[in-house]
Amino acid sequence: MEKTVKSGELVKSKSSRKLLVGQITILTLLFTVGKVTTIISIQKVMMLTGLWTIFLLGTIVLKNKALSSIITNRNYLTYKLNKENSSNILKFLDVTFFLIIKYTDVLFLKVFFKIEAINTHLIPKEGAIIITSNHTSHLDGMILQATFPKRITYMMLLKNYETWGKWFYKSLHVIPLKEQGINCNALKEGLELLRNNGALAIFPEGKVSLDGNLQDGKHGISFLAIKSKATVVPAYIDGAFEVLPAGAFSPRFFRKIKVTYGEPIYFNNKYINERKTREQATYKIMGEIKKLSCLKDA
Q1: Are strands 199-202 and 129-133 parallel, antiparallel or unpaired?
Q2: Where are the chain's structural domains?
């Protein structure tokens, strides 16, 4: 049975709303401090606002156990920080940064695009997950994260990763991909993430569709799915192409965006070395995404 999550329900718990209010307050303070202290060097402004942010967030968490439980939620922690036995303060800052980005995304998409998520009840609550979706806009990543219950790690083309926003992508633990050749390092990092029960988002088409239509899928997705035995969750994003197609300078506001999730797909690693089997797996994944596209007007 199809279930719909309205935009207003994406952030529905009292503790999540408190966290959202706190984060907006922090962003406002940072902006204000930066504006009124123009006579101070940028470095000092960054240092002062950074210290204030840490102090304010620390105070919020220490005084509110509900918020503290959100910060330590395993769905938001990254396997890298756990693997490296990182300090609690580093984990705290990493998760806090992610939550600020996530709920800012939710608020932005809710207000300007009335984002709606369909069939989120089909998303497994446990285990490794690969989210596969059509790719028609550079907004697709933030759209998936706004509607997905776990922290998502993305794969991104190296040419887009190595830009002025590299620090941002690195903070979100994005995995860069070469446009040509075999991406051994990216595949290895993706497998490690999945073996630690992470959630990996892959756009099988490899690049943004210029006409909004679904393109052929690359076979790297099937290799990861079969090798890791992760659950594949297909998704179809409707409306992103109309909002911000490739090459557009700014989004077209007040248009609706809808994400439809499909039935989970399961593979095994029995035939991972057979190219034909991997191709069939890719065709199955792309076929499920295409089926979801047929439901967009339902």
Answers
A1: parallel
A2: 4-110, 114-294
Confidence of residue 104 (pLDDT cuts 50, 70, 90): confident
Amino acid at position 286, single letter: M
Residue type, 230: A
> What SS3 state is found at 298?
coil
| Entry field: residues in the chain | 298
- For residues 81 and 21, give the distance between their C-alpha atoms in angstroms, rounded to a whole number: 27
Sequence-distant (6+) residues with CB within 8 A of 269 are: 226, 227, 229
Q: What is the pLDDT of residues 165-220, one digit of tens each?
A: 788 888 888 898 887 777 888 889 999 999 999 999 999 998 899 999 999 988 88
Within the chain, where are the H helices? Answer: 14-36, 42-63, 65-71, 79-83, 88-113, 140-147, 158-161, 166-171, 184-195, 220-228, 240-243, 275-294
Phi-psi region of 119 (alpha: psi -120 to 50; beta: other; left: phi over 0): left
In the numeric block, the tokens 């990763």 are attached to: 161
Euclidean distance between CA atoms 275 and 279, whole angstroms = 6
- Token pair 């950074």 in the structure block, residue: 50
CATH superfamily placement of domain 114-294: Glycerol-3-phosphate (1)-acyltransferase (3.40.1130.10)
